[in-house]
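Exercise 4. Each item below gives a protein and its sequence. For each, produce the structure-token representation.

Item: Glycine dehydrogenase (decarboxylating) (Kocuria aegyptia).
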Amino acid sequence: MSFLPRHLGPDAAETRSMLRAVGAADLDELVARAVPADIASGEPLRLPAPMSEHEALSALRRIAAKNRVMTQMIGQGYADTVTPPALRRNILENPAWYTSYTPYQPEISQGRLEALLTFQNAVMDLTGLDLANASLLDEATAVAEAVLMMRRANRRATSRRVVVDARTLPQTLAVLGGRCRAVGIELVVADLAEGLPEGDLFGVVLTQVGVDGEVVALAERTEEAHARGALVAVATDLLALTLLRSPGEQGADIAVGSAQRFGVPLFFGGPHAAFLACRTGLERNLPGRLVGVSTDSSGRPAYRLALQTREQHIRREKATSNICTAQALLAIVAGAYAAYHGPDGLRAIAERVHGLAARLAAGLATAGVHVVHDRFFDTVLAEVPGRADAVVAAAAERGINVRRAGADHVSVSAGEPHDERDVDAVLAAFGAAATDDGGAGAGWDLPAELLRTDSYLTHPVFTLHRSETAMMRWLRTLADKDLALDRTMIPLGSCTMKLNAAAEMEPISWPEFASVHPLAPEDQTLGWRELIAQLESWLTEITGYAAVSVQPNAGSQGELAGLLAIRRYHLSRGDRQRKTILIPSSAHGTNAASAVLADLKVVVVATAGDGSVDTEDLAAKLADVGEELAGIMVTYPSTHGVFEEQITAVCAAVHDAGGQVYVDGANLNALMGLARPGRFGGDVSHLNLHKTFCIPHGGGGPGVGPVAVAEHLVPFLPGDPGAVDGGREAFPVSQARYGSAGVLPISWMYIAMTGAEGLTASSRTAILSANYVSARLADVFPTLYTGPGGFVAHECILDLRALTKASGVTAEDVCKRLVDYGFHAPTLAFPVAGTLMVEPTESENLAELDRFVAAMRAIHAEMTAVAEGEVALEDSVLRRAPHTAEVLTADEWDRAYPRSRAAYPLPELRLAKYWPPVGRVENAAGDRHLVCSCPPIEAFAADGPESAAGTVRSGAVEAAR
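Answer:
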């Protein structure tokens, strides 16, 4: 059976009904009136014929079989690990977790926020620092973020020079080299064994466990750096920190690394959650998301994202954070892994891993093989003059991958799944004899001065859920607190939340995909590279560009890669002065933030009254900028939800001025099969696979943001971070060659099952759904912008401002009241304050669309009652929403409306009701008293709730007011 009817919500009868409501005879007429004729592609996409779910899974099985699953002991920042089945089934494979959105509406996100807070708490404890963020994209980009953070925070330093330990992972050095060059930071890579190099500096990056496996003490270099006015960041290993002295104890300001080995599969390079922790005083420069604790309207502890004024959707080019910069789902897995094993279990794993490495070292030494370092955690570097290739090949013959560290050295990294038999097989590859079981590695213990003596993971969350029964119930309890796509439509404009089909999701857990190391030999990864080549070619066809790179592991990184391509293209032509990028005022906030990371100056172009780019202002800005123009970033369809007719003219004007055109692909769900950015004037676009191509959001990551470019920009696509030259000249934007490859099978399956006609039908149905909602609500909440034909694209902006002015009820009040109706709110106040931007997607059927329409019309009636003076605003059901079961079942009820109206505003809610776990969260209080660790159990006591900010453990921080 065709997959398409599974993906599209409306059936044929529902489609006809919706077309009547919008005033179009058929989908052809609707699309013709909505999409400008001069951008229509006019030819079908050249894609393979669509397959059924079974056929596509079988085809992908054949591709996966071309990968060779080995025992992975390569290391270099990637550790083989064990994902507990309880976490794989209940998180990674559970739509309650993977279909949720970024928790900007905290009242319906308490479960995922608590899980992320658990991750933060684990990172804080293990690094010995005061607070940690809720994850970053990968270790290499996290180190880059740490360097930029030190540059922002070190106000005393005038230097633009940072010193980095030469023992740092090579992929980190590659990414860091490009990022530093882009913003004019001088990067000095040095052997720090004898001290810091001479000269001024603003920061130092130390590596606690080097790529060569050596573990070093940090305190001496930290003190030296501080004495010279520099801040210190330490790249470290979370599992090693169960044994080693923490960076915080040794004076570090920042600690950074990957949480991959906490139960997250190798995934051929990602997605993996990185972490960044810091000391008190640096929190307002912290990148990424930060989960904090506040209180709700009843005084109960409640979680929320803290310090959002750092975010680019508020501060744009002045932001210190980018909302795309996170891997929430994988951070949740890592935090749950810490809770599953607890401090004793994690330490036992670490001791066992170190014991295997010590056993290997002992066996090599006995055989006369020189072990380069005697202080190591999990990685042994062996000197084998002229024999490295032979040893690596011999290990591969035994089913084991080890790392060639030059012609004379081989590196071997032990991991959680490995055992003594693996060690003995590696020894045999070296030509050494197997060791006995009697403590063969006893002579390779870590010295006492490197070992930690303090306790960690002392919060009850890390001991309460140790059995599988307890873990399963805890995860179910958390999921029940949330609203995800498995419960309801998530009508977020600009953040497409469409079906993540089970058939699309299933392959990511196959060992042939999940258990492959990103640095495995190419003859072991034939299937991976075939899948990626096919996907890149399909995306190239869909967008009309010349080439695509899937390396960027978030939309923000795709933007950065595209802007770096533009910048490097101009530099290649000698146009060093072209450093100004034009960005319409309505553009995604990520655009401006990414432009700054590419060292471009942002100039804002005004929006015309109809929501389109103001062409007169554009002409004036082009004239004013002159030869400094690098290009323009436009979103198409526009962020206002319309197909702008003048897009080709805008592109032509920028080209005539010598600039490049960046078409933000966030809204590509309205273009597939209808128009191609690479054909109507774009030079470069990024695509959101976690939107248009069905990779789920997972609470705010995993994301993939491939960059697509025209022919002249192909040489400037992000390069391989593992290239022979170190990759520093290739400007990689993530640490793995193919970024977050582990989730690419999802998009492969989507395109394989839909084909050209299915992708086109998806776009047409998305346009129909948005216009249906717009038409059904036009008399109560008119759509702010429409195209010349009176139609919107795939989303519509509902204008609440007139009724807000009459009633005082805000768009935020409406969002909170929608929770009582069982809906995730639309996008609030973006791109226009006082409005809601709605994107229904093609996957919602007519019944769900009508349910949303009914909720919005009922809320309009509630707002009207306030406007007409029937009820005071502060006493209204809107201002006091959402309503928890605890509030509704209290013995006393003193509100101006009945309990039934609060709980069941529509009759059908009595059949299925979502109960929010908390009332409206106090945002300001949470920022004034910044608490970013798990509150004690007493904070939730039913006999007297206290502010979690007043009772949280000593590791919490209070922000400067």
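Check: The longest helix spans residues 328-366.
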